[in-house]
């Protein structure tokens, strides 16, 4: 299956580089390029890509607002790409429904694999910043949790353990080791957790776990 991608990046040289990298993968096709968030939303509506690779700091409309619109309308999954590992936009992008978060200094192969991962519906936060992101979220001074703890009631005890592991930023392989189960079984549990909680990605599950202190 070919993953159809719209690249949203305001710097033309960076955008050209991203298009070149993604175009080198046989299973990825760049179908559109946007120089700002407003154009990214327009292209998502027009082209219905599988994924939008979204910069956060762009003119006319920032990437967080654009992500919220793209996700709310069910137009595509969004992989946020930024220079900053922890800036004021990250949490907003995740809460807006972004399925992944990757740094611009990622290697070409990491970018390609991130696109494939998000397109599969697995969600992703760059390994180099996952635990920093979770730690920052956990210690950040913020208002009371927005989520109602009762949303966890449909989960089995095992599924709660998996959610807790997601909240710690663990990969499927790491969860398998922690909970002493096969990685394929972990993947099944993660899918069930997302389905029962009405979440789009494991990234959103990690944020919810932190909000609820799971």
Quick rundown:
By secondary structure, the chain is an alpha/beta fold. The protein contains ten helices and six strands. GO terms for molecular function: DNA binding.
Average residue-wise pLDDT: 85
Termini separation comes to: 36 Å
Percent of residues in helices comes to 40-55%
Structural class, by secondary structure, is alpha/beta
Separate helix tally: 10
How many strand units? 6
Unreliable spans are 141-145
- Specify the overall morphology: globular
Give the helices and strands as they follow along the chain. EHEHEHEHEHEHHHHH
CATH topology of the largest domain: Rossmann fold
What count of structural domains?
A: 2
Using the 3D structure, state the CATH architecture of the largest domain. 3-Layer(aba) Sandwich
Q: Which range does the strand content fall in?
A: 5-15%
- The CATH homologous superfamily of the largest domain is termed Response regulator
Rounded to the nearest angstrom, the radius of gyration is: 17 Å
Strand arrangement across the biggest beta sheet? 2-1-3-4-5-6
In the CATH scheme, the class of the largest domain would be: Alpha Beta
Largest sheet: 6 strands, parallel
What does this structure look like?
- The modification 4-aspartylphosphate is found at residue 55.
- The protein has two domains: 3-136, Response regulator (Rossmann fold, 3-Layer(aba) Sandwich), CATH 3.40.50; 149-212, Winged helix-like DNA-binding domain superfamily/Winged helix DNA-binding domain (Arc Repressor Mutant, subunit A, Orthogonal Bundle).
- 39% of the residues are buried.
- It has a six-stranded parallel beta sheet with strand order 2-1-3-4-5-6, sandwiched between helices.
- The chain has 214 residues and is α/β, with parallel strands linked by helices.
- 51% of the residues lie in helices and 14% in strands.
- Helix 2 runs parallel beside helix 3 (63-72) and helix 7 (157-167) packs across helix 10.
């Amino acid at each position: 299956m070919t993953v159809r991608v719209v690249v949203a990046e305001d710097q033309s040289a960076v955008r050209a580089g991203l298009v070149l990298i993604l175009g080198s993968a046989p299973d990825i096709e760049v179908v559109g390029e946007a120089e700002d968030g407003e154009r990214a939303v327009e292209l998502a509506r027009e082209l219905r890509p599988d994924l939008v690779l979204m910069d956060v700091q762009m003119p006319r409309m920032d990437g967080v607002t654009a992500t919220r619109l793209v996700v709310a309308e069910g137009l595509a999954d969004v992989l946020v790409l930024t220079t900053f590992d922890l800036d004021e936009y990250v949490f907003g992008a995740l809460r807006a429904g972004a399925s992944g978060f990757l740094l611009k200094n990622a290697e070409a192969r990491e970018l390609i694999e991130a696109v494939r991962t998000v397109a599969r519906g697995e969600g992703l936060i760059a390994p180099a910043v996952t635990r920093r992101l979770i730690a920052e979220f956990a210690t950040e001074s913020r208002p009371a949790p927005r989520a109602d703890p009762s949303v966890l009631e449909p989960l089995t005890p095992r599924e709660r353990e998996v959610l807790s592991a997601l909240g710690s930023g663990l990969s499927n392989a790491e969860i398998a080791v922690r909970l002493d189960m096969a990685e394929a079984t972990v993947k099944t549990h993660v899918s069930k957790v997302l389905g029962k909680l009405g979440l789009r990605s494991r990234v959103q599950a990690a944020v919810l776990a932190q909000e609820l202190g799971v």
